[in-house]
Amino acid sequence: MLRREFHSRAIFVLNAVIGAALALPAAAYLFLPGKRKRAAGGWSDAGSVSSLTEEPRQAIIQRKRVDAWKTTLEEATAWVFKRDGKVTAFSPSCPHLGCGVSFKADQGGFYCPCHDSSFSIDGEVLSGPSPRALDQFETKVEGDRLWLGSVRRSDEA
Amino acid sequence: MLNGIKDWIEARTGLVSFVEGFFEEEIPASSGWHQVFGSMALFSLAVQFLTGILLAFNHSPQPGEAWYSVRYIMTEVSGGALVRGLHHWGASMMVILVVVHMVQVAIWGAYKKPREATWSVGVLLLRLTLAFGLTGYLLNWDNRAYWATVVTLQIMSLPPVVGEWTLQLLGSDAGRVGAATFQRFYAAHVILLPAATGALAGIHLYLVRKHGVAPQPGDETKPNKKFYPEQVF
Fold first, then answer.
1. Least packed by Cβ within 10 Å: which of A105, B31, B65, B224?
2. A26 touches chain B (CB under 8 A)
3. Closest to B185 measured CA to CA, from B159, B208, B153
4. Does the beta-carbon distance from B83 to A70 stay under 8 Å?
5. Which residue of B has its CA nearest to A25?
6. From A35, which residue of chain B is nearest by alpha-carbon distance?
7. Whether A37 contacts chain B with CB within 8 A
8. A57-66 long-range contacts, CB within 8 A, separation 24+
9. Best of A11, A17, A29 to mutate (most B CBs within 10 Å, chain B)
10. Of B68, B78, B232, which has the smallest distance from its Cβ to A29's Cβ?
């Protein structure tokens, strides 16, 4: 190998090393997930259990939201009802593309107006493009208070 | 295969012959290590631009949030501490390189005719580099940044008449640092100064190319050498 050719290749390698030293941290910065997973919002008071009926109603809850460097208290909603002594709390987000679902009393189930998915009172998909049943909040009852935790995907339950 | 890629690029853009033109440029016989500082300053500027853009993706330019967003970059974003470290230390390195470059140009007399404009633009670039440092220092919004900026503003307010106008321009009320000052420093740091520096660096490079590297007395009797390989190695 000629001296000039060796030097030429050495410069090429050196440039590649410098480029990689800049590109790798930049790629990690942009594409890798954060180093610390923060706990989701904890438990939120969703009201009195004794006031729940068989017909779902929208409970307004307050929960902590951790958004990058900001931690805020935000209002969220859940469809809550009680049947056969069992409390259920559905997430109001359609599993299809995240639109808000509403309860249709005349149809006895839930309905997403964006893409016409409909769900039974148990959250099962009756029609439409939704890929799975409605997601549910974790629930716990303390005294007469209903507490809602994180939302669990229905296909992971 | 590499030659194939080279030919493909050359046929469509002329980039290969353009770059080869740089490498084959003739430079004075006395050129050597002392002439690398300008290139190093330019490389440092490119690193500052790259890391600055990355930091802007996660920095919140508001007094109440800036510090938290910097802490987020440092502790939670992958590679965040490294990117910020490169930007922080790169800023100091850039000031050093620009000053060393100017000292070299002054000692070698490269500011003389016909390179006065190149020198003048270089002086402006030094000022812009210092302005980058001043405006960037506040953007952490920590105690040191805050009080250092308060002191700077107090000094700026000292000259009669002009001092008051300067404070007004920087959004400061009687030398205090608040939301308006922070926002103006941020706007200067990420919009005004990069645009001005990019433009002036382009002019500076054009002038350097136009007049060539300054020769030393006695060079005229020696044959020129090629940038590649003599200067590169």
1. A105
2. yes
3. B153
4. no
5. B79
6. B76
7. no
8. A57/A81, A57/A103, A58/A92, A58/A103, A59/A89, A59/A146, A59/A148, A61/A148, A65/A41, A66/A38, A66/A40, A66/A41
9. A29
10. B78
DSSP state for residue A93 in the 8-state scheme: B
Interchain contact A33–B (C-beta under 8 A):
yes
Q: What does DSSP assign to residue B223? A: P
Best of A69, A71, A72 to substitute, by most chain B Cβ atoms within 10 angstroms, is: A69
Phi, psi for residue A62 in degrees, rounded to 5: -115, 130
Size of interface A-B (CB pairs under 8 A): 55
Mean pLDDT, chain B, whole residue set:
91
pLDDT grade for B153, boundaries at 50, 70 and 90? very high
What are the phi and psi torsion angles at A148 (to 5°)? -110, 135
**Of the candidates A132, A124, A125, the residue with the CA atom closest to the CA atom of residue A156:** A132
Q: What does the pLDDT read at residue B132?
A: 97
pLDDT in tens, B187-225: 999 999 999 999 999 999 999 989 988 887 777 777 788
> pTM of this prediction?
0.80
Distance CA A68, CA A32 (A): 14
Helices marked H in chain A — which ranges? Answer: 3-31
Q: Which residues of B touch A67 (CB under 8 A)?
A: none
Whether the bond into B114 is cis, omega within 30 of 0: yes
| Interacting residues of A143 by C-beta distance below 8 A, sequence separation 6+ | none
Work out the burial of residue A60: count CB atoms within 10 Å of its CB; fewer than 13 is exposed, 13-18 middle, 19 or more buried.
Answer: exposed
- The rounded distance, in Å, linking the Cα atoms of A68 and B200 is 37
Question: pLDDT tens digits for A20-67?
Answer: 999 999 999 999 988 765 555 689 999 999 999 999 999 999 988 888
- Of A4, A22, A34, Cβ closest to residue B77: A34
Name which of B77, B82, B230, B233 to mutate to probe chain A: the one with the most chain A Cβ atoms within 10 A of its Cβ: B77
Phi first, then psi: give them for residue A145, nearest 5 degrees. -100, 140
Report which residue type is found at B120.
S
Structure token pair of residue B166: 């300067």
